[in-house]
Amino acid sequence: MEEMNFTESKRMRELIAFTNQLMVEGLANEGDSVSVRLSSTEILITATPVKHRDITIENVSKVLISDDLSAHRFGDLHAKIYHARSDINAIITNHAPHCVGLSLTESKFPAVLDDVAQIIGPRVYVAPSSEIKSVLKCLKGHGACIVKNECVVATGRTVDEAHTAALVLEKGARAYIEGSVLGGAKKIPYFEAKLMRFVYKTKYSKADQEAKLQ
Amino acid sequence: MLDEAQIRKEIKEIGVRLVEANLVQGTWGNISVRLDDKYMLVTPSGLDYMRLTPEDMVKVEISTLNYEGNIKPTSEKKIHAAIYRERSDIGAVIHSHPFYSSSIAAARCELPVLTKDMSTVFLGHVRVGRYGLPGTKKLTKATLYALRGRNACFMANHGIVACAANLIGAFNACRLIEEMSKKFISIETMNLTKKDTFDQADVMTVFRNRKKYKLKN
User: Fold this and answer.
1) CB–CB of A170/A153 below 8 Å?
2) Mean pLDDT of the residues in chain A
3) Residue contact B28–A184, C-beta within 8 A
């Protein structure tokens, strides 16, 4: 890999650290991909397949968004999302079990936890396929979505935020499912959920995300 | 007065332990310690526990919520302060969002006493407070009501509050509520499936059956 500048090296370290963290949390495995934007044209993306527990600099590629990324699982999807959404700087595609399980029966499900409403949005949408149009529609105004029977797409302004989105989405899916043994999870009213999302994006997380982008 | 510098370090350490024990994710959750009758130290707003330094903890006046320095305290400081005002026996409060506890909070369910430990640590069953938006008076009031005579409660669709005389006690209460929440979900699943052992896959079966019979959430 060509020599990197300070910021690129920092992004590389973050990418490796959070990919390994996802593995420890049981939210990433072989066939999952994590990427981070370096500029409007370049990204770093984990190679596929790779055992994320052992991921090192050797398993990460610096590629152009316009390259053919089909060698990376969902690599093309990552590239197309970066191309369409300049506000997204990091993407995780994983196979979180509760999320993928829910995607088989639901086309969307409500936020039943405040942190899901804040980080993901009032609803979590399930895209019927990994076709970019469909995924972008489900991501509009939301931090993450699920592709039916395929994967979770978690995004963020930083890889840290994308990691939190992946974690919180799986927790929200789990709470929605587990709530059913306790009489059913209660959804957060749409207006309240929308308001929390707005406050999170514009106020609550702003300083932290800006600091992490430095 | 307690040694403030030492307390700052302890809050940082407990924050890291919360993350390591998977009892909190990202910047979510907050910790406080009562310094004396007038002040508490709380974690700041929107910064994650791994990056926090002891110096980032914010000294807040319990009665007015005025704070020292330029770092903004957690938006949930009202709940922490209200608990200290109401309960002189409480020296530390932790608010977090562990996985199983969050499922119970989402279902707005009470957690019955399942073990002797629960009676000792929580002083009874764990109630759930009514829903309120984060940072609002409604949420503070609901949390205080659910906490009366107890050392822990669920916050509807949100998470938990655990308190104790000291920080380690509050951390242990957090851990216990998560452990007991897991146990409760297992018991309820076994009751519904009429099985003697718990299998996580059975939870999905119960979920699908609810959907099949159109039982609304």
Assistant:
1) no
2) 89
3) no
The residue range of the domain holding B136 is: 4-183
- Reading the block at residue A68, the tokens are 């053919």
How large is the average pLDDT for residues B55-60? Answer: 96
Return the percentage of chain B with pLDDT > 70, whole number: 96
B window 76-115, beta carbon within 8 A of A: 97, 99-100, 102-109
A/B interface, count of CB pairs below 8 Å = 118
Active site residues of B: 76
Q: For residue range B91-112, list pLDDT tens digits in order.
A: 999 999 999 999 999 999 999 9
pLDDT given for residue A59 in this prediction: 85
CB-based contact (8 Å) between A131 and chain B?
no
| Cβ count within 10 A of residue A210 | 11
Domain count, chain A: 1
Is residue A168 within 8 Å of residue A120, measured between CB atoms? Answer: yes
Token pair in block for residue B52: 């926090």
User: Is residue B107 in some structural domain?
Assistant: yes
Number of domains chain B is built from: 1
Q: Find the CATH number of the domain harbouring B151.
A: 3.40.225.10
Of A22-26, A120-124, B85-89, B173-177, the poorest mean pLDDT is in A22-26
Stated pTM of the model = 0.90
B190 within a domain of the structure (yes/no):
no
Domain-embedded: residue A12 = yes
Contacts of A204 in chain B (CB under 8 A): 45-46, 75
- Residue among A25, A115, A179 minimizing CB distance to B107: A179
Contact B204 A195 (CB under 8 A): no
Q: Which residues contact B94 (CB under 8 A, 6 or more apart)?
A: B14, B18, B29, B30, B31, B161, B162, B163, B167, B170, B171, B173, B174
Average pLDDT rounded to a whole number, residues B103-127: 97
Contact B102 A181 (CB under 8 A): no
| CATH number of the domain where residue A86 is located | 3.40.225.10
Please report whether residue B202 resides in a domain.
no
Q: Cβ separation of A195 and B208 shorter than 8 Å?
A: no
In a domain, B29, yes or no: yes
User: Looking at the domain assignment, is residue A214 inside a domain?
Assistant: no
Q: Given this model, what pLDDT does residue A148 score?
A: 95
Q: Please provide the DSSP assignment of A176-196 as one string.
A: HHHGGGGT-PPPPPHHHHHHH
The tens digit of pLDDT for each residue in A82-133 reads 999 999 999 999 999 999 999 999 999 999 999 999 999 999 999 999 999 9
- Residue A127: in which H helix or E strand, if any? strand A123-127
- Chain B residues with CB-CB distance to A178 below 8 A: 100, 103, 106-107, 185, 203
